Each structure stands twice: as C-alpha cells, then as structure tokens.
Amino acid sequence: MSATLNRISVVQARRLYVMVIAALVFLALPCFPVQAAQQPAQEQQAARMVDAGIYITNIQEISLAASTYKATFWLWFKSNDEKYEPEKSIDIIGSKDVKTDSLTVEKLSDGTYYRSIKCTATITQKYDVGYFPFDTQNLRIIVESTADEFSKLHFKADTKSSGIDPNIVLPGWKYRSFDVRAESATYNTDFGAGDGGDSTFARLVSTVTLDHAGGRIFGTSFLGFFVADLLTGVTMAVESFNITRLAVPFVGRLNMVAGSLFGAVGNSYLVEKMLPPTPTLTLTDIVQVSSFSSIAFALFTVITTETMSRMAYSAPVISTVARSSVALYVAAQVALITYFVANANKTK
C-alpha cells in the first residue's frame, strides 16, 4: 500500500512538473519576435515589380547659362496590376512646363497591362563648365514613383527597348552614349505621414552623355580674346625695334592697346552670357585672365619704352628692354596654351 502511494505521488509530481514547464513555455512565446522577423520578408514579397522604359525623340534648347534643357520622350510601364496608373503617380525630377499626351493603354498577350505616354519637359540640369568649351555633360531624365514607396513598388529598367533617336540633331554637341537603369531615392523625411522615418521611392534614370564640339566653339566664341592677344603681340613687336617705334607714334601704340582692351571686354560679356556662375576657376577664366594680363603688360611696355626714350636712353637699350618684355609675354602665352591643351580633355 505504501509503495503504491509512493508511485502515485511520483506520477503526480511528474505531471505537475510537465504542466509547469508547458505553462512557462506558453507564457514565453509572445516574447519571441517571430512575427517581426517575418514582416520584412512579407513586405518584400508584396512589392509590385513594374517594367519601365524610356525612348528620347528630341533634345533641344540646351542652355548652360540657365542650367536647363528641353526634351521630348516616351515612357512606358508594364505591370500585372490593371489598376496601376503610372501617368498619375510619377514625377519627373527637376522638371517644369511638363506636357503629356498620347496615353496608350492595352493588355498584352502575356497578360500584363501596358501603358505609355508622351512627355515634353524643360528640365533643370547642373552643368560642370570647368573645361568649357571642351566639356562633357550628362543629361539626366529621372522618373520617380510618388504613389507607392519602394517597399511596395520596384522599377525594372527595360534596357532592350529604351534608347534615343539617332536622328536627333544637337548643334554644337556630339552624342557619346545612352544609359538607363532602375534605382531608388531616399528622403530624410516622412512627408508628414507621422511615422517619423525616411521615405524611399523607385526611380528610372536615363542618362545621355554629350561632348561639346570644343574646337569650333573655341574658335568662334573666343575670337575677341584672340584679336586682343594679336594686337598686344603686334604692339610689343613694334616696341622691340627703334624703326617701328619711330614709324608708329606713342598715341598710335596706345590706341592699339585700347583696341585690344575693347575686344577682350566685349568677348568677356559674350562668354558670361553663355555660362552659369561658378565658384571654381575654369579654363574660360584662365583665358580671360591671360588676355587682360597681356593687355596690361603691353600697356606697361609702351609706357616704359616711351619714358626711356624721353629720358634720352639709347635706342639699343630701349629695344633690349622691349624684347625682354616680349620674351616674357611669349613665355606666358606658351604656358597658357600648354596648360589649356593638357586640361582640355580631362572630362573625356
């Protein structure tokens, strides 16, 4: 009897122990972040994948001074969601005066829904003019989804069908390449939604790379500086020989320097209208500084030789001083040309 009671007590103790362990495990289950660990994977699976592409039919009005260009292009989107209306939920970053038309909606043979739209927009563009007129510019058209965040919608770039019309005429520019890719953009704001976190959206980014026709532009847009340098060079050559100093009076030599100054100033205004303000030193700045420095140097030489002549210095001495100035002038011009040529193709 006693042994039987002991066995019953042991069985009851074991049952009680198992029940206690089971109760502790049941109470501890909510503490494990099982649902939280699965949530991101579920959100990732729920993201809609949209094939997006772009074909550029025209680029015009490329303005370095205004930091803008105008483009006409087609956008298309292919999705499994019949209710997805991208024409109502996209933004062309940095655009103004956007016009859209020719909306096409159809169901393709593979069951996906196709929507295309034609856009014409003036787009702001930051240009790097440090090596103008030998610069290379990347014109970007950035199409961003605004209705759904990246966790709900992804773009997949249609690289096969996207491109640019080869018949586009770009005066002053040479076409180099085209690229399109899908990416995302994160903003450090919740846009007032209340969660206090960042916001990430899908983007389709197309890039057209263009090279400036530098040789022709350099020869036409900088003509005033060339004339100014030529006049200063002739003036300094006149100062180098006694016979030419006697043939061209002092006032005439001063007028030559004044003519070169007017040419340089006029060309300076022309170039400033072509380029945006920039805080860095550009090749254009170097050309202008060199031109105005040459003018100042020629004026200094003319006044120096005339002063020496009136102080009764001999003609050979005056000519020697003038030729020394010419040597410095030529050395400065050679240094400028060398620097310009060495840096002209840095962006290529």
Q: What does this 3D model show about the protein?
A:
By secondary structure, the chain is α+β, with helices and mostly antiparallel strands. It folds into two domains: 48-212, Distorted Sandwich (Acetylcholine Binding Protein, Chain: A), CATH 2.70.170.10; 222-344, Neurotransmitter-gated ion-channel transmembrane domain (Methane Monooxygenase Hydroxylase, Chain G, domain 1). It has eight helices and ten strands. The strands form two sheets. Strands 1, 2, 4, 5, 7 and 8 form a six-stranded mixed sheet that branches. The protein has a four-stranded antiparallel sheet with strand order 3-6-10-9, with no helix packed on it. A hairpin with a 4-residue loop joins strand 1 (48-63) and strand 2 (68-79). Helix 4 runs antiparallel to helix 6 (250-274), helix 4 runs antiparallel to helix 8 and helix 7 (283-310) packs antiparallel against helix 8 (315-344).
